[in-house]
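Go through this fold for my students:
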Amino acid sequence: MPNDGSYLDELQQQYGSTFEQLGKIEKLLLLHGVVQNLLNAEVNVQGSSAAVNALSTVSPIVQGLHKRVHIGEHLGLAEALINQLKYQR
């Protein structure tokens, strides 16, 4: 919430409500950090063996994305995954 004194409020005041004061690389790095935090939290809940199993499933997919999906499509894919994660239980 705006003006609630939270860290997110501080960031909004410093960088704008949509982080418009940050460049593309900065936003991508910020997204990377947020995703890493979410991944770490999920691994803490499900355990490292679940993470190892997931990594074996996802590694070939990531390699395929790198080789076969145009970079211009990656942001849309990220958005789709984020939307699915938001509503997944």
Notes: The mean pLDDT is 95. Residues 24-87 form one domain. Residues 80 and 86 are 10 Å apart (CA to CA). The first helix runs from residue 7 to 15.
